[in-house]
Design brief:
about 40% helix, about 260 residues, single chain, Arginase, Chain A, alpha/beta, seven-stranded parallel β-sheet
Length: about 260
């Protein structure tokens, strides 16, 4: 079985740029410890930072300038966006990937941000592929507990020819949730790449209290199956939420096992 490429940089461990409880240390350590314990399953690659040009495809100049006023925040936010870009580029080349990054991004809009998000990693990554004429459409599954308003605000209803279909599942029972995801995927057409804003706070032992490790495996499997049907398997995922540090590694690993070839 081919290894799943994991995008990660040790600087992501640094949470000194925020006092928000969501930025508390320990989230990534457990994930990476588990990933590093399976060298036959995962290969880890370090990204570079996103450029200002990359960031400005998704954000206004004023927003960029506000983030840049805090050097550490800008360093880590641009490095996180760079991780998402790397994952998207690898996926476009036919190499499925998962970016274990911090800070997350799906609550960052063009000129505002909240929810421990600063740059919209997903939008920056997809808009770079679009600008380089590598894709003209994408499907984004955002399975975080909290709706990714930034993804919707930046990627939804665009007028530049880039079509992005976004699903934030709303079912309140696990089987219905999985059925909602698959029913949506069955209707997709003309998609160039699959992407996931992978939040794990819907987990049984997390805030949402809904999804088990088996459910996360199935979500990963559905993304794999339908991306193979529609776009030669081009797919990537980037980490968003997840707050129970003890449950997070197992949920991430389950998703990745379903997601990988």
């Amino acid at each position: 079985m081919p290894k799943l490429t994991v995008i990660f940089h040790p600087r992501y461990y640094n949470s000194d740029y925020s006092s928000d409880p969501a930025a508390s240390p320990g989230r990534l350590e457990g994930i990476m410890k588990l990933i590093e314990s399976f060298p036959d399953r995962y290969q880890i690659i370090m990204p570079e930072s996103a450029s200002e040009e990359d960031i400005l495809r998704a954000h206004g100049k004023g927003h960029l300038n506000r983030i840049q006023r805090d050097p550490l925040l800008y360093e880590l936010s641009s490095l996180s966006a760079g991780g998402a870009i790397y994952a998207a580029e690898l996926a476009h080349q036919g190499n499925p990937s998962f970016a274990v990054l911090r800070p997350p991004g799906h609550h960052a809009s063009a000129d505002s941000c909240w929810g421990f998000c600063y740059f919209n990693n997903m939008s920056i990554a997809l808009l770079k592929l679009f600008a380089e004429k590598k894709i003209s459409s994408a499907f984004v599954l955002d399975f975080d507990l909290h709706t990714g308003d930034g993804n919707l605000n930046i990627l939804g209803g665009r007028r530049d020819g880039f079509h992005v279909d976004i699903l934030n599942p709303v079912a309140s029972e696990s089987m219905e949730y999985l059925n909602e995801v698959e029913a949506h995927m069955k209707l997709l057409k003309n998609i160039d790449i699959f992407a996931a804003s992978a939040g794990f706070d819907q987990g049984i032992d997390d805030w949402g209290g809904l999804l088990s490790e088996d459910d996360y495996f199935e979500i990963g499997r559905l993304l794999r199956e339908y991306s193979q049907k529609l776009c030669a398997g081009r797919r990537f995922a980037i980490l968003e939420g997840g707050y129970n540090h003890s449950a997070l590694p197992g949920n991430v690993d389950a998703f990745c096992r379903g997601f990988s070839d």
